[in-house]
Amino acid sequence: MTSLPHRALQALDRFNSAHPWDHNAHYHRWILRRLPARFARALDVGSGSGDLAGLLATRSTTVHGIDSDPAITAQAQRRTPPTPHAALTFTVADALTGIPAASYDVITCVATLHHLPFRDALTAFRQHLAPGGTLVVVGLYRAQTATDHLFNTAAAPLNAAMGWFRNKGRPARRPVSMTARTRPADMGFDDIVREARDVLPGARLRRRLFWRYTLVWHRG
After folding, report:
1. String of b and e for 198-214 (b: at least 16 CB within 10 Å)?
2. What is the pTM of this model?
3. Domains and CATH numbers, the chain
4. Res 16 pLDDT > 90
5. Quick check: helix, strand or coil at residue 72?
6. Which of 18, 34, 156, 185 is the most buried (most CB within 10 A)?
């Protein structure tokens, strides 16, 4: 007989499939609160459907989004309306070798870092961040410790509640931003903290709900 926890997990999976919501967009406003009110140049790595880049454009003079997926980048170009406040562009590019040769006051990276060589990616971000600039990462980690599993257990019912609230109880289509290719994370949070602080001394990292962690680093 199937155990009750397993049946409950299957029920949650079915519910979440019927009431999807964007876990990454949930953190967009949080990201903006970590950034200056105005800045000149911003780079969004793994820009996906362009939602975060569009928000950055309300504060920045120039915003450049890069993503390795041509299909999702084309959607970003179609979906993002021109803005009178900033030059907003999207390019298909590799996150390590395709960053435009410039320095940025802000670099953001949401749900992308686990697709990349971790240290190499953070090194590239550091090299392209201007003095005084801010790097903000929202990433995925693999649950390994008791604390990780506690966060995941707490997130499961909250995830269902958020899906119900955001969709007002009705079944919904998957957001455009959730159609890009994904893969599970392979680094645990403790390893992420250790390696991140080795590359970015003073970086602040925290576990977050909904299977995410955050990293904030200010370049002196």
Report:
1. ebbeebebebbebbbbb
2. 0.80
3. 25-136+189-218 (3.40.50.150)
4. no
5. helix
6. 185
